[in-house]
Amino acid sequence: MSTLLIHDPVFLEHETGAHPECPQRLRAMIAKFEERGLLGRCEAGKYKPITEAAIKRLHSAEMLERAKQLAELGGGHLDADTPISPRSYEVALKSAGACLAGVDAVVTGQVTNSFSLVRPPGHHATPDKSMGFCLFNNVALAADHARTKHGLSRILVVDWDVHHGNGTQDIFYSDPDITFVSVHRYGSGFYPGTGSADESGTRDGLGTNINVPLRANTAPKTYHEQFRSAIEWAADQCKPELVILSAGFDAHRLDPVGGLGLEAGDFAELTKVMLEVAKAHAGGRLVSCLEGGYHWDAAAESAAEHLATLLDA
Ligand SMILES: [Zn+2]
Known about the structure:
This protein is of the alpha/beta class. It has one domain: Arginase, Chain A (3-Layer(aba) Sandwich). A seven-stranded parallel beta sheet has the order 1-4-9-8-5-6-7, sandwiched between helices. Strands 2-3 form a two-stranded antiparallel ribbon. Helix 7 packs parallel to helix 8. The chain is globular. It starts with a strand and ends with a helix. About 55% of the residues are buried. Bound molecules: zinc ion. The site of zinc ion has 7 residues, from loops. Zinc ion (ZN) binds next to loops.
């Protein structure tokens, strides 16, 4: 049993200036993995940038061109929160590509599970808008890849980033094959503002979108109960062949933007729930992709707890 870790210094080349989503996040995580002896225990893997054709299966051509052209012009802002640098478009293609490679390795049985340590993140990117630090939706593209390249028909996507995965929700809102569960802080104008429990999907996808909105400062015990019950219920409904995770670490108590009270060790517990569900339905196949997490030390410690638990699967 083994865990693939995809990381690459190229993900530091998406420069954002004085911004919470900065290259130092990844440096802190890699240093922590090294310190805890985790790096040497992981399988290393190759990946390719995602193709523009694959991006256009889920995102509009206009959205792709906008990011590409702004990068070519030297950078700028895709929205108020989403600065990009000259390298950002290429790096975003690689970020998504590294998540697709996690799917390839896990679905072909090369490894049991994977963690793609990428940036820019992806879960706020909607079908036609880059937003919230995200250029293209890495986990949605990974799920689409599992379906089109590997022929899977039932996929569970879980998002434990403290922010609602609005982009992933929008992309799969009427899609019966992809069940999406987002557990996030909600209310009082917290970003991005969507993610209420009554957003449950539409048409053929009705019932396949599950939101677990939590108030600021929800007790960790309550968080764990709600998380486990939503994930287990969703997995029983969809009986996934593959589980994909949007792994943000901004629900940590110290996160400067999060406002939920988890500790690093809580992410080990959440990972165990994910592994149980993956084992029960999907032969243990779990593909994890980094999203947010903005307190460098806390996010690094939390990501290390996550990775160590994946390695122990
Ligand atoms: Zn977040």
